[in-house]
C-alpha cells in the first residue's frame, strides 16, 4: 500500500497474519529505505507488526526541533520544522494509514511506535515530548549531539504513554573531526541515563561509525521495542 501526502511518500508493509491486534511502527527514512528495513526486520522479528515508512521529506528541516547552522562547509542548515511535520503525521498520515489498516486489513492497532536513524532518531525521541500518540521509541544512531537537546530532555516532560525507548550508537561515532559530533556518545548516554530512571530503556553499542550497518541497526531497534 503506497500513498502520497504533501509530497511525502508513504509505504505500508505488512504480512498476512491471524493476529487481529497488531502494533504499528512509524519509520522516517532518509532516502526510502523502508523496504530494506522491513526485510531486515523479517529476519530478526518473531512478533507481527505493520511498518509505515515515510520518505521524501525535507530531512534536515522536518527532522529537527529547532534551527541549527551548518556544521561544515557544504552542510545543510537545519530549519527546525519538526513540530509542523509531526502535525502532518498526526493529522493526515496516521489517519489515512489507520483507515487502511482498520478497514482494508481488518486489524486493530495495538499501539503506535516511532523509529528513525540519525536525525530520524532525534525526531523520534523529540516526538515523545510533543504528542501522546506514540507508546514506544527507537532511536538508532540518533543525533543526540543536536544543540541543547539534552537540556530540552531534562527540562520537559516526555509523554506518560511512553513505556519503552531504544538507543544505539556505533562505538566510533564519537571519533569525528567536527567538535559537536564528538559529543554524541556522551550526550546519548546522558539522555539514556536520565530517561531510564522512569522508563524501560536500553542503550546498545554497535561496531563502527555512523554510516555502518544502518539498516541492521534500525531493524534491531524496532525488534527491541516490539518485544
Cα-based radius of gyration, to the nearest Å? 17 Å
Beta-strand segment tally: 8
Helical content class: 25-40%
Q: Kindly report how far apart the N and C termini lie.
A: 25 Å
CATH topology: Rossmann fold
Low-confidence stretches: none
The CATH fourth-level homologous superfamily? Alpha/Beta hydrolase fold, catalytic domain
Assembly category: single chain
Classification by helices and strands: alpha/beta
Features:
8-stranded mixed beta sheet; 36% helix; globular; alpha/beta; 227 residues; 24% strand
How would you portray this structure in words?
The protein is α/β, with parallel strands linked by helices and 227 residues long. It has one domain: 3-Layer(aba) Sandwich (Rossmann fold). It contains 7 helices and 8 strands, in the order E-E-E-H-E-H-H-E-H-E-H-E-H-E-H. It has helices at residues 34-44, 59-62, 82-103, 119-130, 149-155, 184-195, 214-226, and strands at 2-5, 8-13, 21-28, 50-55, 108-117, 134-140, 164-170, 200-206. The protein has an 8-stranded mixed β-sheet with strand order 1-2-4-3-5-6-7-8, sandwiched between helices. Helix 1 (34-44) packs across helix 7. It is globular. It starts with a strand and ends with a helix. The relative contact order is 0.16.
Amino acid at each position: 500500500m503506497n500513498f502520497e501526502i504533501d509530497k511525502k511518500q508513504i509505504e505500508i508493509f505488512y504480512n498476512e497474519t491471524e493476529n487481529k491486534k497488531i502494533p504499528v511502527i512509524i519509520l522516517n527514512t532518509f532516502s526510502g529505505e523502508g523496504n530494506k528495513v522491513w526485510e531486515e526486520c523479517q529476519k530478526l522479528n518473531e512478533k507481527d507488526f505493520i511498518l509505515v515508512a515515510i520518505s521524501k521529506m525535507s530531512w534536515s528541516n522536518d527532522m529537527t526541533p529547532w534551527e541549527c547552522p551548518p556544521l561544515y562547509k557544504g552542510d545543510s542548515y537545519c530549519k527546525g520544522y519538526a513540530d509542523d511535520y509531526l502535525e502532518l503525521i498526526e493529522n493526515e498520515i496516521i489517519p489515512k494509514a489507520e483507515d487502511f489498516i482498520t478497514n482494508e486489513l481488518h486489524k486493530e492497532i495495538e499501539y503506535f511506535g516511532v523509529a528513525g536513524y540519525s536525525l530520524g532518531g532525534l525526531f523520534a525521541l523529540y516526538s515523545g515530548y510533543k504528542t501522546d500518540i506514540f507508546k514506544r521509541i527507537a532511536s538508532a544512531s540518533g543525533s543526540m549531539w543536536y544543540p541543547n537537546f539534552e537540556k530540552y530532555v531534562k527540562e520537559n516532560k516526555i509523554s506518560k504513554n511512553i513505556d519503552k525507548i531504544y538507543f544505539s550508537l556505533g562505538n566510533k561515532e564519537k571519533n569525528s573531526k567536527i567538535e559537536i559530533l564528538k559529543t554524541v556518545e556522551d550526550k546519548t548516554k546522558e539522555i539514556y541515563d536520565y530517561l531510564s530512571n522512569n522508563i524501560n530503556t536500553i542503550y546498545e553499542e554497535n561496531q563502527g561509525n555512523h554510516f555502518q550497518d544502518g539498516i541492521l541497526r534500525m531493524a534491531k531497534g524496532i525488534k527491541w521495542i516490539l518485544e
